[in-house]
Design goal:
Number of strands: 7
Radius of gyration: 16 Å
Helix content: 10-25%
Structural class: alpha/beta
Oligomer: single chain
Largest sheet: 7 strands, mixed
Length: about 170
């Protein structure tokens, strides 16, 4: 039929400074395909311009398809299309940058994300702080949930408490 399917299709919501995309590309094989949804044109111009060297030109990777649109639109339109959806659009599960992003973290948005995932797929949501209520909402949406905390400091200092960020992993059962 001429239709190519990717062995590991991934959706990244939000480019930001490219951290999530670069981390994904570093672990994925050559047969992977990563769609990046970034709604802010200035971020794309910045990534392709003055930040290109610092972001290792990751938007130019052959595995990457950039879509200048809302990740919610891609999620809502998909049915079992992705093995993973990585959301890094806000500082956690609340529409901080855009109130309309609240839908992503609502039961309706989570159910849409679950429908967009292939069986066994993973929804990963980065959060600046732990959020037990959101973890419970993920479980209510039918996901198996695990939370991984990490020290966000680049140079930990002895005797200083860790500054934790978390990633909430929601596995489609």
């Amino acid at each position: 039929t001429g239709v190519q399917t990717c062995a590991l299709p991934i959706l990244v919501g939000g480019y930001g400074m490219g951290f999530t995309l670069r981390a994904a590309l570093a672990t994925l094989g050559r047969d992977a395909g990563v769609t990046v949804a970034e709604i802010v044109p200035e971020i794309i111009a910045w990534a392709r311009g003055p930040m290109k060297r610092l972001t290792a030109g990751c938007l130019d990777d052959a595995r990457v398809q950039l879509v200048q649109d809302d990740v919610a639109m891609l999620i809502e339109a998909a049915h079992e299309a992705y093995d993973a959806i990585l959301l890094d659009v806000d500082n956690g599960p609340e529409g901080l940058t855009r109130r309309v992003n609240d839908w992503l973290y609502s039961i309706e948005g989570l159910q849409a994300a679950k429908a967009a995932l292939r069986p066994g797929g993973i929804l990963a949501v980065w959060s600046a702080t732990p959020d037990e209520a959101f973890a419970a909402l993920l479980a209510k949406a039918g996901f198996a949930v695990s939370v991984v905390a990490m020290d966000a400091r680049t140079l930990p200092i002895a005797g200083e408490a860790a500054f934790e960020h978390v990633i909430l992993f929601a596995h489609k059962q």
